[in-house]
Each structure stands twice: as structure tokens, then as C-alpha cells.
Specification:
The structure holds three protein chains of three kinds. In chain A, 34% of the residues lie in helices and 28% in strands. By secondary structure, chain A is of the alpha/beta class. Chain A has two domains: 231 residues, 3-Layer(aba) Sandwich (Rossmann fold), CATH 3.40.50.300; 75 residues, 2-Layer Sandwich (Alpha-Beta Plaits), CATH 3.30.70. In chain A, strands 6-7-8-3-9-10 form a six-stranded mixed sheet, with helices on both faces. A four-stranded antiparallel sheet of chain A has the order 2-1-4-5, with helices on one face. A four-stranded antiparallel sheet of chain A has the order 12-13-11-14, with helices on both faces. The longest helix of chain A is centred in the middle third of the chain and has 16 residues. Chain A is globular. Chain B has a single domain, classed as outer membrane lipoprotein receptor (LolB), chain A. Chain B has a ten-stranded antiparallel sheet, with helices on one face. In chain B, a hairpin with a 4-residue loop joins strand 8 and strand 9. Chain B is elongated and about 75 Å long. In chain C, strands 2-3 form a two-stranded antiparallel ribbon. In chain C, a hairpin with a 4-residue loop joins strand 2 and strand 3. Classes of the chains: A alpha/beta, B alpha+beta, C mainly alpha. Chains in contact: A-C, B-C. At the B-C interface, strand 2, strand 5 and helix 3 of B face helix 3, strand 1, strand 2 and strand 3 of C. Strand 5 of chain B pairs antiparallel with strand 1 of chain C.
């Protein structure tokens, strides 16, 4: 039992625990009484609109910003300027990844590798470059990198000390669709194959839905929801976009019907309804009976619907 | 006293004066001859500059001289500071050459020693020297002090001390006394540093200034036949 | 700490901008050497006219030691700017680049970050002074040769024997290095306040220029505050070329600069440890 207890010790404390964090800048309350905990192995989503307090929260977790109130615990120990070495358990990208533009990718990674306690071999650095898909471009000056390449290099720098927790602020920002897919696959593999814990913020809710197991939703600095993604989402509610043929009178007949209550937005060519997934066929049939030419029906992401429902004033 | 006796006394006085004048002239020419017997010399020198507005360490060098007026101080690339060029350091240039009028100016006693004072006036109007007053050690035929008034260079006062080379009338130590003009540095040239020494220096500078240059001669090589080339060398 | 210092120095000396300073120092020295080659004699004749009225100054007056002194006189006004170019950029430049937040998420304390940037900037400024010694002194000696050195002060003419000069230059360069340490501390302090690399550089120069003017104005009010201005003490290196060398005065200046340096460094550390990094 004792041995089992010891084995489980590492799971006794969440890897990161945020307690009652608050921060204001002048009269602007950026974060208000925020608490959440990230357990080992989770992919944790931090959701919110621009200015909701996501970056500020991440910066407080990393010691870049000092909270007015509250605390951050890393592996059970309170994180402050006296035990900065706790940061060795964390790798992070905050906002866009910026590095030394006048140095090469290799030189940049080497510099950050040297800042840790453990010596990182050249082989390991090469391995990291390969993992993030920058093999062959290491020696190029970062100034010549595309945004996507810089993003990858940022991930490489975050990973260089093999941290247990990765904090990634909008990691797919500026990437093309292929890049986004590759980044998503990388993050998932970091979690599933390498056992990393990841805290990720993104505006691409579809991405969070694909990757996150847990999440916190911030709105104007306050936590308005938090928990398992699958538990938080209402599986029955969805947003449905219906692309129609433009016809005079379409809108009037729809708005005046019982379906009008479920109409979220409407234009000449597209209608958006918020309704139970199961009655979508019924809606489609009614529209067809009303003579509305239906070109396409597609369901909006459930998480987006959830997010919009939480944050719409 | 009778008239005859009075005339006799007067005659004796005139004769005595005449004899003194002749004696003074003789003394002068004897000294001049001794001084001019040195055609050239080379000497190790140590020069000490004592001027209110100058801070100069003891300068060591080699002084070359060739009669009548060639002189060069060699400091192995170092800087030499001497009174202005026209004011020559050598006694030979402060003792007028050519025909002169020598006046016996009596004697003076200093530190228990008695010196004859001679006033020498060159008869040549073109000579830079107007008048030289000399304090002479008659027994050794040595000039101990000169005050030379010149047309172009004001009055130069020089005191001399002798030891090993007195037979050549070459001094061991010469002190040149100068009246100093105000030191002026052109604007923009100053390399000033503000330190605590400044007020004292300014204090020292008030009023008419005097300065001295003291030259100690350590050893001489006399009449070695120095060539003119020695005085042509670049500094 | 050594590893961090190596990294900082690597970053400094990898930037092309760093070498501009070395180039400027060499260029200014070269220009003055050229000018002295062409018109040095006339310049000295003009400067020595006050003394030449009564004295015959002969010898190798225009020599490497004098030319080096003239170069130092002009350059030690400009060197603070060149030092600020690097030190002023130390923290603000990283903030501007966005790398500061990346650096501070590593397991190194903010105090260490400040200290290491301060030390690296000092090493850079010492390297600049050493370079100055090479181009101003050794190159001048090569071109103009050795000789006794003259120092023309507004009320004094000083002659320093050639064998007595070199140690004075060593003292002067050492003091200049200390003076630049103060500039480094000032630049880094200003650098901590902003996210813009240019601001601290301009501010450092502005402060140095204004305080230098105050240090030199002969007004009663400014005379009172003069001993408390670090710019007053920065020219202490000149004392090594005085006779006698005012060791007490130089020592006081060195202590004053040391106090300023330490004070500004501690202020930087205190402020930086409390600063929210929003860049």
C-alpha cells in the first residue's frame, strides 16, 4: 500500500494549480478570481475571446506577470521568484513565438537548450528539429523563416528541456491548413505518446475540440465554465447552416413560422438555426415544402455553439 | 695743504684710476681668452626647470657646443626645454667679443668671498649685447655671475658654480634667471582636468613671475673636434 | 552564471551592430592620426605659442603619446554612446524582439538575467576600451613614435618623460573602463523601463550630455551640485597625466563612480524583479 501510495504520489498534486488568481492593470480587471487545476496527461484548453484574460493568465502561471492576488502551484510547490527552478518543468510559447532573428534556428535552439540544468546533446537537438518538421532548415537565419516555421521553432524551444507541461498560447496562429493539421497532430502525439500535459489556448474552437480533454472558459477575466470538454458540451444542441437559393419572400415565411424562434441569423443565401440535432431533418422537410431551394446543410461545431451561448451578452 | 701737494695727490689718483682700468681690462681679456679656449664640448647634463606655470621633471640629456654659437641638447627623442633660442646658454655668448670698453665697478663680497665687478660694453653697435656686468673670481679667472642686457632678449642673469673643469672655465652648475610673461593657452586647446590643484596654481601665477632653469654638467669632453653634422640631426 | 554570460556575449557579438562601435572608434582614431600627420606641427606650434615666447621647446613633441591623448580626449566623449548602443538594448531590445518573455520562462532568476546582461555589457565596453588602446595608443606609437608627452592645461604646461607615460595610460584606460561601467549601469537601468531599444540609448546620451554641460558650467548653483554628478567624475582619467598625479582626487572619483554603478545596478534589479512583462 505504501509503495502504491508512493507510486501515486506524483498524481496527488495536479501538475499546475491556479488558485484565486486576480490581476488588474490600472482600472482594467484583466483576470478575476480564477482557479483551475491541470492534471498530468491532460490537454487543457483555455478559451475566451480577445481580451478575456487568457494570455494574462498564462503569463501569471509563468511568472512573467505578478498576480495581485492568488497563487500558482507547480507540482505541489508554490511558484514565486524564490523557486524559479520550478520552471524547468514547463515549456511555453506566449503569444507569437519570437526568437533571435539574426541567429539561425539551430543557434536559437542551442541557446535555450543551454539555459536549462541538463546538457542537451546535438543529437537530441536534431531530433527535436525533426519532430517539429524543421529538418534541413536548422542553419537558416530565423529572419528568413515563414510564420509557420517560426511557430514550429517556438514549439521546439518549448520542448527542448523535455518539460512535463507545455503551455502553448495560440500555437496554430498564422499556420496554413496543412500546418494547422500538422501542429494538431504534434500536440496530440506529445500528449498521447510522450505523456506531456498541455495547456493550450486558441480561437480555433474546432482545434480545441479536436485536442482538448478539459477546458476553462474565460469571459472578461472571469471563469464562466470549466471541466471535461465532453461533459461541458450539450450534445443535443447544435448550430446548423443551411445554404439556400435566393428567393423573394423566403425570409418572411421562415421568420413568421415556429422555426423563426430557432433562427440565429439569416441572409438571402444562408440561414443559421440553433436546434436539437434530431429535428434537423424535420426542418429540412419543412423548408422544402415551403419551396425553399436547399443547396447545402451543414452543422456548426458544437463547442463553438457552446462558447457562443456562454459568452453572448 | 699747499697747491703743489694737491696737484700731486690728484695726479696720483688719476694714475691709479688709469692703472685700475687697465687692470680691469687685462682681467677681462684674460677671462675671455680662457673662455674662448674651449672650441667645443660635449657634456652630460641634468636640467631642472623651475617656472610657476610649468611642471617639468628633471631632464637628462647630452649638450653639444661648438664655438661660437652652435648648441644642441640631445635627449634621445625626448623633449628639451631651454630658454629661447637666441638666448644662448654659453658664457662665451654672454661675454662680448671684439672691441669692448671695460669698466671697473668695484668689488662685492658674497658668502665671505670677494669678487671683482666688471662692466663690459661692446663698441660694436650691431652686437645684441648692450652691457654685461660680471662678478669675477680674480684669483681663479672665473666668472661667477653675469647680468647681460641685450637688444632683443631683455636682461639675462646667470649664476655659475665650478668644480672639476674650472681650468676651462666650464661650470658644474649654471642657473639662468628669467622674467616670465603670462602663460596663455589658445582657446580650445586645453586638455584640462578639474582637480584640487587648480586654485593653488592660479595663486602662484599672480603678479610678476620669475623662473629659473638650472643646468648641472656632469662631465665634459672638451675640444674633441665636434663636426657641424652633430648640430644638424633631427630632433 | 558562466554559461549564461557566454550566451549573452555570444548574442552581443553575433549582432552586426556591435561591430559598428569598433569601426567608429577606429575611424575617429584614424582621422585624428591623419590630421596630425598632415597638420600636427602647425597645431602644436599654435598650442605652444604661449610657452614658445620664452622657451625653446625642441624634440619629438608630436609623438604617439600626445596623439593618443588627443584621440582619447575626443573619443571618451563618444564612447558612452557606443556603450549605450549595446547596454541600452540589453533588456529593452529583447523585450522589443519578444525574446524577453521567452528568456524569463526559463529556470533563471530575473536577478541573474540583469546581472548577466550587465556583466556582458561591461565586457563589451572593456573590449571597446582595449580596442581604443590599440588604435589610439599602439597605432599612434607605431606611426608617430615614442617621445616625452606634453599636456597643455589652461594654466599649466606639463611635460611627462617617455618612460613615465605608459603606466599612466594603463591607469587612464582602467579608469575609463570604470567610467563606462557607470554608463552601462545607467543604460541597463533605462533599458529595464521600456520595451523600445532606441529609447534607453537616446536617454542615456541625453542624460550624459545634459549632466556634462552642468558639470562644466561656471555658475554658483551648478558648482554646488557638480561633485554629485557622475559626469564630473568620468573625466578622472585625465588626472593620470597631471604632475603630481592627484591620486586622492582620482580615488574619490572612482569611489563616486562605483557608488553610482552599484546604486543603478541595484535599482535595476529591484525594479526588474517587480516588473510585469507584457511584451
Amino acid at each position: 500500500m505504501f509503495i502504491l501510495h508512493c507510486l501515486n504520489f506524483r498524481n496527488l498534486h495536479p501538475i499546475v494549480e491556479v488558485k484565486n488568481l486576480s490581476k488588474s492593470f490600472g482600472s482594467f480587471q484583466a483576470v478575476c478570481d480564477l482557479s483551475f487545476a491541470i492534471e498530468q496527461g491532460q490537454v487543457y484548453g483555455l478559451l475566451g475571446q480577445n481580451g478575456a484574460g487568457k494570455s494574462t493568465t498564462m503569463r501569471m502561471m509563468l511568472g512573467l506577470i505578478f498576480p495581485d492576488k492568488g497563487s500558482v502551484h507547480i507540482k505541489g510547490k508554490e511558484f514565486n521568484s524564490n523557486n524559479i527552478q520550478l520552471l524547468q518543468h514547463i515549456g511555453a510559447i506566449i503569444e507569437k513565438p519570437d526568437m533571435y532573428l539574426y541567429l539561425s534556428g539551430w543557434e536559437n535552439l542551442k541557446i535555450f537548450a543551454a539555459l536549462g540544468k541538463n546538457k542537451i546533446s546535438k543529437a537530441r537537438l536534431s531530433e527535436i528539429f525533426e519532430q517539429v518538421g524543421l529538418s534541413g532548415r536548422e542553419k537558416d537565419i530565423v529572419k528568413a523563416y515563414s510564420q509557420g516555421m517560426k511557430q514550429r521553432l517556438g514549439i521546439a524551444i518549448a520542448m527542448v528541456h523535455d518539460p512535463e507541461l507545455l503551455i502553448l498560447d495560440e500555437p496554430t496562429n498564422g499556420l496554413d491548413p496543412q500546418g494547422i493539421a500538422e501542429m494538431r497532430a504534434l500536440i496530440i502525439s506529445l500528449s498521447k505518446e510522450h505523456g506531456k500535459t498541455v495547456l493550450i489556448s486558441s480561437h480555433l474552437l474546432y482545434e480545441i475540440e479536436q485536442m482538448a480533454t478539459h477546458m476553462v472558459v474565460l469571459h472578461k477575466g472571469k471563469k464562466i465554465a470549466g471541466g471535461r470538454v465532453d461533459e461541458l458540451m450539450h450534445p443535443d444542441e447544435t448550430l446548423v447552416d443551411i445554404i439556400i437559393e435566393p428567393r423573394v419572400g423566403n425570409l418572411i415565411s421562415i421568420e413568421s413560422s415556429s422555426w423563426g424562434q430557432r433562427l440565429v441569423s439569416a441572409s438571402e443565401r444562408a440561414l443559421t438555426f440553433k436546434l436539437n440535432r434530431e429535428i434537423v431533418p424535420e426542418l429540412v422537410k419543412w423548408l422544402a415544402d415551403e419551396g425553399v431551394g436547399i443547396l447545402e446543410v451543414r452543422s456548426k461545431h458544437s463547442l463553438e455553439a457552446y462558447f457562443l451561448s456562454l459568452t453572448n451578452d | 695743504m699747499s697747491r703743489k701737494t694737491l696737484w700731486l695727490v690728484l695726479l696720483l689718483l688719476v694714475v691709479q684710476a688709469g692703472l685700475h682700468a687697465a687692470e680691469a681690462e687685462q682681467l677681462y681679456y684674460a677671462i675671455r681668452s680662457k673662455v674662448l679656449s674651449v672650441k667645443d664640448y660635449t657634456a652630460d647634463v641634468k636640467i631642472k626647470v623651475d617656472v610657476a606655470y610649468m611642471k617639468v621633471p628633471l631632464l637628462k640629456g647630452i649638450l653639444y657646443f661648438k664655438a661660437p654659437d652652435k648648441m644642441r641638447l640631445e635627449r634621445d627623442g625626448g623633449v628639451s626645454i631651454l630658454p629661447k633660442k637666441n638666448v644662448n646658454l654659453t658664457l662665451s655668448n654672454l661675454i662680448p667679443t671684439g672691441n669692448v670698453t671695460v669698466i671697473d665697478a668695484g668689488t662685492a663680497t658674497e658668502k665671505g668671498k670677494t669678487y671683482r665687478i666688471l662692466k663690459v660694453i661692446p663698441e660694436d653697435d650691431q652686437n645684441n649685447i648692450v652691457l654685461t656686468k660680471m662678478w669675477v673670481d680674480e684669483a681663479n679667472l672665473l666668472v661667477m655671475r653675469t647680468e647681460t642686457t641685450t637688444h632683443n632678449d631683455g636682461t639675462i642673469v646667470m649664476t655659475l658654480e665650478y668644480a672639476a673643469y674650472s681650468k676651462y672655465a666650464l661650470p658644474d652648475k649654471v642657473v639662468i634667471h628669467m622674467d616670465l610673461k603670462d602663460y596663455k593657452l589658445p582657446k580650445g586647446m586645453t586638455m584640462d582636468y578639474e582637480d584640487s590643484g587648480k586654485p593653488e596654481a592660479t595663486e602662484k601665477m599672480k603678479g610678476p613671475q620669475k623662473g629659473t632653469i638650472e643646468i648641472r654638467y656632469l662631465n665634459y669632453t672638451v675640444n674633441s673636434g665636434l663636426s657641424d653634422a652633430v648640430f644638424q640631426k633631427g630632433n | 552564471m558562466t554559461k549564461l554570460l557566454q550566451i549573452e556575449l555570444y548574442k552581443i557579438f553575433k549582432k552586426p551592430r556591435t561591430y559598428i562601435s569598433f569601426g567608429i572608434v577606429a575611424a575617429i582614431a584614424f582621422v585624428i592620426q591623419l590630421a596630425m600627420t598632415a597638420g600636427g606641427k602647425e597645431y602644436l606650434d599654435f598650442g605652444l605659442q604661449g610657452v614658445s615666447e620664452q622657451f625653446d621647446i625642441q624634440g619629438k613633441i608630436l609623438n604617439g603619446y600626445l596623439v593618443a591623448y588627443l584621440i582619447l580626449q575626443s573619443l571618451l566623449i563618444h564612447i558612452p554612446l557606443l556603450v549605450a548602443l549595446v547596454a541600452g538594448d540589453a533588456i529593452a531590445g529583447e523585450a522589443n524582439m519578444g525574446t524577453l518573455r521567452l528568456l524569463l520562462t526559463q529556470p533563471i532568476s530575473r536577478t541573474q538575467v540583469v546581472l548577466v546582461k550587465w556583466l556582458a555589457s561591461i565586457i563589451y565596453s572593456i573590449a571597446l576600451i582595449v580596442w581604443l588602446a590599440i588604435v589610439a595608443l599602439f597605432l599612434s606609437l607605431l606611426i608617430f613614435g615614442r617621445g616625452d608627452m606634453i599636456n597643455l592645461k589652461s594654466d599649466t604646461f606639463i611635460l611627462i618623460l617617455k618612460d613615465d607615460v605608459m603606466w599612466r595610460y594603463a591607469g587612464a584606460f582602467a579608469f575609463a573602463s570604470l567610467a563606462m561601467t557607470t554608463i552601462v549601469s545607467l543604460s541597463i537601468l533605462l533599458s529595464a523601463f521600456t520595451d523600445n531599444g532606441i529609447g534607453p540609448i537616446v536617454a542615456t546620451m541625453g542624460i550624459v550630455i545634459v549632466l556634462t554641460i552642468l558639470s562644466n558650467l561656471e555658475l554658483p548653483l551648478f558648482k554646488m551640485i557638480r561633485p554629485y554628478l557622475f559626469t564630473t567624475h568620468m573625466i578622472g582619467w585625465k588626472g593620470f597625466f597631471d604632475d603630481p598625479v592627484p591620486y586622492r582626487s582620482i580615488g574619490k572619483s572612482a569611489i563616486a563612480l562605483g557608488v553610482y554603478t552599484l546604486g543603478m545596478l541595484l535599482a535595476t534589479i529591484a525594479y526588474f524583479n517587480k516588473k510585469d512583462i507584457r511584451s
